Amino acid sequence: MIGFGRTDRSTLGRWWWTVDKFTLVAFVLLIGIGITLTLAAGPATAHRKGLDHFFFVQRQMIFLAPALAALVGLSILSVAQVRRLAIIGFALAFLATLATLFMGVDVNGATRWLRLGGLSVQPSEFIKPTFVVVTAWLIAAGRREPGGPPGVGISAVLCLLIVGVLALQPDIGMSLVVACVWAAQYFVAGMPMLLVGVLAAAGAGALYGAYHLFEHVRERFDRFLDPSAENYQVHRALEAFEAGGLTGRGPGQGEVKYLLPDGHTDFVFAVAAEEFGALACVVGIALFALIVVRGLMRMRREDDLFVVLCCTGFLAMFGLQAAVNIGVNLNLLPTKGMTLPFISYGGSSLVALSIGAGFLLALMRRQAPGGGG
């Protein structure tokens, strides 16, 4: 198999026989599906914007090699190496995200991007995978010994700080993901049930506040709650699902990609439904489900709290983003600018998610060295 025998003690040999191959293949397939759908939806968006026909395809391909390198390269690391690299990466990503508030590129009223040469990079995307590891380390360190450092409290302050910075961009969707990831980790670590109710109430209050503070949030909720309201992209997406049927119109034969401003990003799932059909969409959902289920099965056999909390955070991140994006496409949730992991166009998102996937694969490896400390 791939040239490695079971007695091969090289780094690659040990990696091949310990990595979760089902999860690895699922991630690679999702990346492949993403490139395919960028080829399908990208040219239509480029034509509508007056850009070169393969503008978005070429941009996405630039990030493909770094994404695959991160996916495989990081999955070789030990648990201790994952922790150390994530701490450094988190510090750099947080500083870069702060910089967007002062020198970020303004796109539709949001300053989430930094211009690097001819490319735009969204630093906050890189906060997500590194934040998962940092908070897992803090919580696990605090729980390891009685009287240890207040890991939960420090991680909570860190979470609030990040959410505050993201809200200033503003990026309410990213703030929601970060908060939910932290809550999932704390819940698995043993959150008191009374605090579960308190945090749920606080989350509802935060959404209520966002509704009144941010006009775009209010408009999206109002359109979702009022069936008679004009919701252009969602209506076109639902028409795409109907037109595609079970098997789709065929590659390149879709029409909705010419009508959806975000057909290559937030509504790429609708493009897939029209061209490849509902059955193909079910396959995509099954790949996300496979990743989550395999991760949960692996956690059942793990006794290192740090690893358990890391896996919890990554699975929550992948699962939540996928569920929200698909829910929006099906008009089950208010519209939100949240991409479909690995599939929607976006170089920063692709590389950052691949970093998270590489970390997850490293932590899921059988007989991987411990190192929650």
TrEMBL record:
Where's it mainly located?
membrane
Matching Pfam families = FTSW_RODA_SPOVE (PF01098)
Q: Member of which family?
A: Belongs to the SEDS family. FtsW subfamily.
Keywords assigned by UniProt, alphabetized: Cell cycle, Cell division, Cell shape, Glycosyltransferase, Membrane, Peptidoglycan synthesis, Transferase, Transmembrane, Transmembrane helix
Its protein name is Probable peptidoglycan glycosyltransferase FtsW
* Organism for this UniProt entry: Minwuia thermotolerans
Question: Recorded GO terms, molecular function?
Answer: lipid-linked peptidoglycan transporter activity; peptidoglycan glycosyltransferase activity
Catalytic activity line of the entry: [GlcNAc-(1->4)-Mur2Ac(oyl-L-Ala-gamma-D-Glu-L-Lys-D-Ala-D-Ala)](n)-di-trans,octa-cis-undecaprenyl diphosphate + beta-D-GlcNAc-(1->4)-Mur2Ac(oyl-L-Ala-gamma-D-Glu-L-Lys-D-Ala-D-Ala)-di-trans,octa-cis-undecaprenyl diphosphate = [GlcNAc-(1->4)-Mur2Ac(oyl-L-Ala-gamma-D-Glu-L-Lys-D-Ala-D-Ala)](n+1)-di-trans,octa-cis-undecaprenyl diphosphate + di-trans,octa-cis-undecaprenyl diphosphate + H(+)
